[in-house]
């Protein structure tokens, strides 16, 4: 499944800046950054649950915001891209 993860971490304190870096690292380990605080992740149910648990462990729910969007199939009908950035086609062939 394709999910979109967005977050807004309060960076007013040093602890907040550390949380922001940790949240970004967790997201980078599971998906690709499409904007500063927005990631696309192609995951199965188990990976989704692990990602959600890992991110919830990092944020401060009193100061931060974390959102997950599940994009339903067919993705090509639900996602439109404009501009120069093109995301990775997770279903396409891998060329190294």
UniProtKB/TrEMBL annotation:
Q: Say what the protein does.
A: CRISPR (clustered regularly interspaced short palindromic repeat), is an adaptive immune system that provides protection against mobile genetic elements (viruses, transposable elements and conjugative plasmids). CRISPR clusters contain sequences complementary to antecedent mobile elements and target invading nucleic acids. CRISPR clusters are transcribed and processed into CRISPR RNA (crRNA). Functions as a ssRNA-specific endoribonuclease. Involved in the integration of spacer DNA into the CRISPR cassette.
> Record's family?
Belongs to the CRISPR-associated endoribonuclease Cas2 protein family.
EC numbers, comma separated:
3.1.-.-
Protein's GO biological process: defense response to virus; maintenance of CRISPR repeat elements
According to the record's subunit comment, the protein's assembly and interactions are: Homodimer, forms a heterotetramer with a Cas1 homodimer.
Q: Does the keyword Phosphoprotein apply?
A: no
Query: Signal peptide span per the entry?
Result: none
Query: Which residues make up the binding site for Mg(2+)?
Result: 8
Q: Which UniProt keywords apply?
A: Antiviral defense, Endonuclease, Hydrolase, Magnesium, Metal-binding, Nuclease
| Alphabetical list of PANTHER family matching this protein | CRISPR-ASSOCIATED ENDORIBONUCLEASE CAS2 (PTHR34405), CRISPR-ASSOCIATED ENDORIBONUCLEASE CAS2 3 (PTHR34405:SF3)
What are the names of the required cofactors? Mg(2+)
**Which GO-annotated molecular functions does the record name?**
hydrolase activity; metal ion binding; RNA endonuclease activity
Q: Name one Pfam family in it.
A: CRISPR_Cas2
Spell out the protein name for this chain. CRISPR-associated endoribonuclease Cas2
Q: Which gene encodes it?
A: cas2
């Amino acid at each position: 499944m394709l999910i979109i993860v967005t977050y807004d971490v309060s960076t007013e304190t040093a602890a907040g800046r550390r949380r922001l870096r940790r949240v970004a690292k967790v997201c980078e380990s599971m998906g690709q950054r499409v904007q500063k605080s927005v990631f696309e992740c192609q995951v199965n149910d188990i990976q989704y649950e692990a990602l959600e648990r890992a991110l919830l462990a990092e944020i401060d729910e009193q100061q931060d915001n974390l959102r997950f969007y599940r994009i339903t199939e067919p993705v090509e009908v639900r996602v439109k891209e404009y501009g120069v950035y093109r995301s990775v086609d997770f279903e396409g062939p891998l060329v190294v």
